[in-house]
Amino acid sequence: MSAEPENLVLEHLIAIRAELATARGDLRELRDRLVETHAAVLAVPRDQVNDAGTGASLAVRVDRLADRMDRVELRLELADDE
What we know:
The protein is an all-alpha fold.
C-alpha cells in the first residue's frame, strides 16, 4: 500500500511541474508583449515631437516660398496695390 501513495504524490508533482512550465511560458510571452507595448508607448511622444518638428519645418519653407513669390510679383509688377 505504501507504493500507491508514493506514485500518487509523484504523479501530482509531475503534473504540477508541467503546469508550472506552462505558466512560465505564458508569463514569458506576456513579459515580451509588455516590453513591446512599453516600447511603443515610449515611441508615441517621440513621434509627436518629430511630427511637430516636421510641421514647423514645413511652415518655415512655406514662409520662404511666400517671400520669394512676393519678390517675384514685385519684380514683374504683379503685386496688388495694397
